[in-house]
Amino acid sequence: MPLTRRHVLLAATATAVVATTGVPAFAATPAEPHFRIPVSPDDSPGELIAKASRVRPTERQLAWQSLEKTAFLHFGVNTFTGLEWGTGDEDPDIFRPTGLDTDQWARALRDGGFKLAILTVKHHDGFVLYQSRYTKHGVVSSSWRGGDGDVLRSFADSMRRYGIKVGVHISPADENQYAHGVYANGSKRSTRTIPTLVDGDDRTARGLPSYELDATDYGAHMLNQLYEVLTEYGPVDEVWFDGAQGRIPPDKVEKYDWDSWYALVRELAPDASIAVSGPDVRWVGNEDGMARENEWSVIAVKQGDNGKYGRVLPYNSTDEGSREALLRAQPNAAALQWFPAECDVSIRPGWFYHADQQPKSVAQLTDIWYRSVGRGAVLLLNIPPDTNGLLPAADAARLREFRERTERELPVDLARDARVTDDGAGTLTVDLGRPLAVDRIRLAEDIRHGQQVEHFVVEAEVGGSWTVAAEHGTVGATRILPLPAPVTARRWRLRVTQARAAVHIREFGLYKSQV
After folding, report:
1. CA separation for the pair 128, 107 (Å, rounded)
2. Which residues have a Cβ under 8 Å from the Cβ of 99 and sit 6 or more positions away?
3. How does pLDDT run across 430-442, given as a tens digit for each residue?
4. Distance between CA atoms of residues 452 and 447, nearest Å
5. What is the arrangement of strands in the sheet containing 273-276, beginning at the earlier edge strand?
6. How far is 171 from 353, CA to CA, in rounded Å?
7. Are strands 165-170 and 238-241 parallel, antiparallel or unpaired?
8. What band does 206 get if pLDDT is binned at 50, 70 and 90?
9. Is this structure's pTM higher than 0.70?
10. How far is residue 436 CA from its own chain's centroid?
11. What average pLDDT does range 351-372 have in this prediction?
12. Residue 433 burial (CB < 10 Å; 0-12/13-18/19+)?
């Protein structure tokens, strides 16, 4: 069986699973995917793990996880003030990126191998990078391009021109609207018509839909801005919300209208993943770009205010998805959910551009890649444009070097045309036809069938005996393993020694790096 299209079904060792779960090891995969499965404190350990084995990603999550490497672009008034967190009372006229060239951004990202880019359309200071009807704190009040500039329009057009998907970061916090008495003003939720039409508004005449949604005063403001962004700039593939509250008094907390925001995004951008403070993608828990050694996409979640689901265990937990972690979370869990991790990190020390900072080295970025993409997460790398509106030359060059380096790490899959046998008991054997040196291994489950592998061993036949080359816990969407030294062998095998249910291996790649 050639390993050209890797959709191999492995039945993991039954005794290892039954002994731990007390339930049948290889129950049939449900015909329909289940993104979120309710749990109860009364579920037995076996029932809990069986439910975890039946959790499945949605189509939008599958598409998102296949991206592997995405880009963030923090750009706004902070770029010109030197701050990381704006105040909301900046003079909009300081925003003057006179050399703005978003095609240059797109070329640099394309050359770096990025498939999606997220622009900070509005950061916590409330300054917006497009022509909004609902605030003057934005490009409309800058003398840049006579007040007609629109970074979002230019960004979206450029990304699509170069084959890169478009994402938007619209901060829930807004210190400018706090100053105007809208944000965190204590208003009650009531039914609002979105969009809220303004003088001279032509959207009704254009036949755009309207919605009745529950929101506070500020929640409605956010809904109106989301409506603008999601109806006037083409398809959006990721909407990125953080959970910041801004520098407001501690007794002034805005309870965000998550349910209404999510509903509007689903209506207007049905293919978009809603990330971090959203139901599709979770923050990994640090800003270093590092996933856990064993990163699970199935974790325990609880329901919070206004329809927001969030993790049960602390964000900095070293383990969120193992059997032990799920049992620890169970008393406070509402459900088990497919909730894959996004690893955010900046190429520079800051998130916004600072002239005295320099980008990370290729070696640093490669290490981050191994610890994010290589552990089944998606890397979100921030590259901040400078005051001219360009990605700095050093950063653009580093992106290209980063892609070239990762391509040398995994240059040619030596197992692509190999003969493969599956013994039906959890072992997949690859015969390369002749002894070849290998120092990189890439594995992947077909996560359409969930994430099942809990422990595996990769072995090479050396001198007539099977020798362990690598041994780890999870596989998930991707697992990339650098070996400490090359191993030369003709036959290799993957043994799944513990799993939650039937394991579907999509990829078993063997490589000799050219680094």
Report:
1. 24
2. 388, 389, 390
3. 999 999 999 999 9
4. 9
5. 273-276, 238-241, 165-170, 116-122, 69-73, 378-382, 341-346, 282-283
6. 18
7. parallel
8. confident
9. yes
10. 35
11. 98
12. exposed
